[in-house]
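**Protein record**
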Amino acid sequence: MNIQTYVIHHLVKSADLNHHGTLYAGRGAEWVVEAGFVAASSLTSTESTVCLNIHGMIFTRPVKRGSLLRYESKVVYAGRTSLVSYVKVNVGHTNDFVVDGFLTFIHVDETGKPSPHGITVEAITPEDAELQQKARAFFNK
């Protein structure tokens, strides 16, 4: 299947702030995982998708209260039981880059054991091909 992008938004509210008055990184990371989960579970189901690994995130700028964040997620690699999502976050009104990262999800059966999903992912654009190559590298170590 061709790579499909999913978009979700989050409004940064007072409850999401750290002691500096900017977005708490833990809340931002939670939303990154959620966005990655949306992409992965859209190919399988919410009941059969679990997060295995967050492959790293570096926040490039503080995010102020009232900002509307745009989370773009897509599955860029499919292994036998794994799906790797790539998530990119921008501030909605300025399109300023905030953070990106890869997450590995595992397809499980009703007992929680890894189970083959039968999904293949085809990169069409050069950008998606590059992301797929980076995701594949997580498994070639």
